[in-house]
Amino acid sequence: MVERYLNILGSWVEVGRLLQAFESSVNPSVRCNTLRIEDCGVLTERLERLGFEVKPIRWAEHCFEVVGGVNTVSTLGATHEFLVGMYYLYRGRASLLPPLTLSPVAGERVCDLAAAPGGKATHMAQLMRNEGVLLACDVSRSRMRALRSNIERLGVRNAVLLRVDGRIIPDIFPSRFDRVLLDAPCSGEGLIMFDPSRKVKTGTRDLVRMHELQVELLNAALDSVRPGGLVLYSTCSIAPEEDEFVIAEVVEGRDDVRVERVDAPLRLSEGVEEYFGLELPDYVRLCVRVWPHIHGMEGFFMCLLRRVG
Amino acid sequence: MRMGAGIRCSFEDTTRFMEGVVVRLFGEDAVKVLEGFSLLVCRGEFAEAYLLRGEVADLVNDLLGSGRVPYAAGLYAGRLRRSSPMFVPSVDFLSFLYTSLGGFRRALVVGERGLKPFLYGKDVLKASVLECFEPLSKGEVVGIVGEDGFVYGVGLSVIDSCREIEGLRSVDVVAENVFDVGWYLRGGTEARERKFKV
Fold first, then answer.
1. Is the CB of B95 inside 8 Å of chain A's CB atoms?
2. pLDDT per residue as tens digits for the range A290-300
3. Which ipTM did the prediction report?
4. Fewest beta carbons less than 10 Å away: which of A77, A165, A302, B166?
5. For chain A, which domains are there?
């Protein structure tokens, strides 16, 4: 793993900083749910009365980092305010990026291909002001229950929940959606600060298996979006095998897709163009990566693709 | 709805739901706020009602045409039952209704001290009731609302009218807990909750 980081980052100093960031804690964040409350000041006042210290996240409207007080995730996940859906709780801030980058608007047809437990799906419904339609799919039975709980708790009323493998969505809804989010299942290599076991959990074979699934899911996402529509591919992994290599394999295999520049709400690092001597196509530079030691968040990757023709 | 669990979903005439359930429980004007919705009912172990409109209804229609059923869709209205209570509304349905009507119906406003045990599955006692909104009927559903105006759950009323509260002792139960939002943490492990809630 360290050898791979050295190959990408190019210096031991940077690798050291990355490993140190993986050992540091990241503050939890909350998204004020405007589907339930109009004035987010009411939420922040209530959280402060409970002993939490919150600070607005400048690049994410209605979102707050919990910087002090009893800022444990378990406590934040058991307040009355949480239970009535005044906010969604995140372990870090990077998960706010995909909905803000894909940026669906009211009235659109949107699909979240791997939606559970629903942080990004409910965020998109909030951006859509509960108008239009959001198809939220997941294959896992237990995670589907969590998704439904979150959808109901947060007052999302424009969603259709479907328990299927996302790979079959184009069979049911070919070229149907204006925007598709694929927050792909991944090794979670960007989340080591939350789960240190991920340092050793993923072997090369796992990465290969994951890569194959990610390629199939991304092709399904592209087949589900209408010509001209957008697909946002994201992972909570910083491994190029799950990120730029997936993008390159899918784009090279099709003639109806173009990588677009990611207009993220904050400045992020470019995609990796060269890895262990392998040169990737220029367009992967348009993808973006969140580095824990640079951006102070969990590791993350995003790439925006447009279906053309 | 669970895939492969023998669930059948279909769009049904809204008239019976509106007149038999909504008007009976919440009054004539409640129907107005539900105009434009289609009614989807999914029947398996339980019968669940969803209110859909516009693109959501179109997508579900196409989904049903492909031989699949949604796990859930639109606004989950609640569970339809053959015995009393014939309809157990969801918290989100009550929230929608109260917001749209601009006030509470068939509801108890509960103080903070009573809300905490309620969120652990306990019943609502007279001592914690701050306000009562008619109509109430014994054995029928009642919204449980916090002082902040949010709906925290659904109960079964043990009284026929708000006036009856006066005659109760402070430790007497006013509403039995059917569902509370603490379920989102507990994961629906209580048998009583499973009876009313997926």
1. yes
2. 999 999 999 99
3. 0.93
4. B166
5. 25-92 (3.30.70.1170), 93-309 (3.40.50.150)
